[in-house]
Design goal:
alpha+beta; Alpha-Beta Plaits; five-stranded antiparallel beta sheet; 25 helices
Length: about 600
């Protein structure tokens, strides 16, 4: 082993450490890897930044835009409404219709986007069928993964492995090349979830309102201000109860006028009725203030302009690691957070000082502007069902047609997938289905940075010969048992790494090793590539292994153990299926 190879492997292991511990964001780690290799001369600047112009990176960015256009035009919502009509009220029928639908849709658009749209739909289905939402949300996430392994564009990992395959001298993955095995795995997965998985999931008590669900009743009250109140005539920001006691004012009612999510410049007046959120200790202090009258919160007070909604901090959000105070949440989104749910625990006080994590669920008392602001911000996913804007619904069908043409063009090999995806994006912008500004908002730039940086690591592994070192080690452990056993090992290693790392990072690390191992054994590398591709998208054991699992973690009130209980048998089933059938569909010789 040369010093250069040792250095590259060391950088790779350090990157894996930071991926697992999450001490740094995954995209930051990937960019640091790129900078390290460029600054030390392992790769030239041109080689180092080549990952950002890689067809896989560009294609993944374009697919984000295609999925966003279907959301913006309401095409996915039309599908969701049809599912609500078909689902009925039986738990198994609801789960079956939901999983079949999301699996089909996830074969053609980004599965995270699909789950984000269907998350509030699933909550509504659960309410109508009187079923605990926890019985449906993990099936929703898993079904999106089933569908993702049926087509080339189903997941970003499929696109990435296809591009890496071409770079290593092999052919790209066809649009439906994965479908025969993907459909078998999807059917097995759906049957498992319907017969076994749903029974293993927890069942939580159904509640009629979000206030009850988050148990915020004791923290909400009404305060009337009289002439004796020292805060009358002051700006809200200067009022003693807001400045010193940390009271959140959700709404001010002044006669017939209502001010939702008032800002700090609002002038307080005698006779104002304030609807507030505070701790029980703070409420006792307020009782002693002159000119402040405490009233129980009346149910009728939440009129049409004021209600609660749930929002999940999206995986990869730039808000992760920040507090509600540092991001100016109230001013930015025109709403107030009154509760935060994390890992099954609900927090009600000092929310402004808590550092946000992916999957956190916020209960917010919103204003008329809040829904629009949160909906248009990719760092949050709304759990509460809200009416979609109707301004672009006439473009829903053209958007679906454009996506269909992209699929046809790639299937018939008329143009490469990157060209088809870019042409589709151009058509969507020109048709008005999505604006130029929304294109930038639609792209998950953390994924793009991750791909660009990790492709640099993959290039360094390949250029230096580190792939041969890793291949020789793997062959020394598993090679004596033949290619079939090695394929099974590739699937298992990929599956386990994906639960801790990014699925794309795992693929970039292992694809060069797969090609080197195949060359040493004198077999076709395709079976090994397919093992990596399928395993990287089969992440069922943890809430952090795949973004869709993270999205449903909080809304479903799951524990980490719930994923292990339901997902571990499914991972084993898929491992055995893949080990047995991949060589049938993609022979070694």
């Amino acid at each position: 082993m040369t010093p250069e190879i040792a250095f590259i492997l060391l950088v790779g292991f350090v990157a894996v450490y930071f991926f697992i511990t999450e001490k740094l964001r995954v995209d930051v780690v990937a960019l640091l890897v790129m900078v390290t290799f460029i600054s030390t001369g392992v790769l030239s600047p041109t080689q180092g930044i080549a990952g950002f112009s890689n067809p896989a990176t560009v294609t993944v960015a374009a697919m984000f835009v295609l999925a966003a256009a279907l959301q913006k035009t309401g095409a996915l919502n039309f599908a969701a409404e049809a599912i609500i009509r078909l689902a009925g009220r039986s738990t198994w029928r609801v789960a079956g219709v939901l999983m079949l639908s999301i699996a089909f849709i996830s074969g053609f658009i980004n599965n995270t986007a699909a789950v984000a749209v269907f998350l509030p739909v699933t909550i509504e289905l659960a309410r109508k069928a009187n079923v605990s939402a926890s019985k449906l949300l993990i099936p929703l996430s898993f079904a999106s993964l089933f569908g993702g392994v049926c087509t080339l564009i189903g997941t970003s990992t499929n696109i990435l492995v296809s591009t890496l395959s071409v770079q290593h001298g092999d052919k790209p993955i066809g649009m439906f090349e994965m479908a025969p095995l993907g459909l078998i795995m999807a059917v097995v997965g759906l049957v498992y979830m319907l017969l076994i998985g749903i029974r293993l999931l927890p069942e939580h008590r159904q509640v009629q309102s979000l206030e009850d669900n988050f148990d915020v009743g004791p923290y909400l009250t009404e305060v009337g201000l009289t002439e004796e109140c020292q805060s009358v005539g002051l700006r809200l920001a200067n009022a003693a109860f807001a400045r010193e006691l940390g009271v959140d004012v959700l709404e001010i009612q002044r006669g017939d006028q209502r001010v939702s999510a008032p800002d700090g410049e609002t002038i307080l007046a005698a006779g104002d009725l304030l609807r507030i959120h505070c701790s029980l200790e703070t409420l006792n202090v307020l009782r002693e203030l002159p000119g402040v009258e405490i009233h129980p919160l009346r149910k009728s007070s939440s009129g049409p302009e004021v209600h609660f909604l749930e929002a999940v901090v999206a995986p990869g959000s730039v808000l992760v690691g920040h507090t509600l105070k540092t991001i100016n949440f109230r001013e930015r989104f025109k709403c107030t957070a009154v509760a935060l749910r994390r890992h099954g625990r609900t927090l009600h006080t000092k929310l402004g000082n808590i550092r946000l994590q992916s999957g956190d669920v916020l209960l917010v008392a919103d204003s008329p502007e809040a829904v629009t602001r949160i909906q248009s911000h990719r760092d949050f996913v709304l759990v509460s069902q809200v009416e979609m804007p109707r301004s672009r619904q006439h473009l829903a069908l053209p958007s679906v047609v454009i996506l269909g043409l992209v699929v046809i063009a790639v299937s018939l090999e008329i143009v490469p997938v990157v060209v088809a995806a870019l042409l589709g994006c151009a058509a969507l912008v020109l048709s008005g289905a999505i604006t130029a500004d929304e294109v930038y908002q639609a792209i998950d730039w953390s994924v793009i940075m991750l791909l660009g940086g990790m492709l640099t690591l993959g290039a360094a592994i390949q250029e230096s010969g580190a792939d041969k070192v890793l291949s020789n080690w793997l062959l020394g452990v598993a090679g004596d048992f033949g290619p079939w056993f090695l394929l099974s090992a590739f699937y298992l290693i990929t599956s386990l790494l994906t639960e801790a790392l990014s699925n794309n990072a795992t693929a970039v690390l292992l694809v060069p090793v797969a090609f080197s191992s195949a060359a040493t054994l004198g077999v076709d590398p395709r079976p090994f590539l397919m093992a990596i591709t399928f395993a990287a998208s089969a992440s069922f054991m943890t809430p952090v292994g795949y973004q869709t699992n993270t999205l449903v973690y909080g809304p479903g009130q799951y524990r980490f153990a719930d994923y292990l209980k339901v997902g571990t048998p499914l991972n084993i089933i898929f491992w055995l299926l893949a080990s047995a059938l991949i060589p049938v569909f993609w022979p070694f010789h």
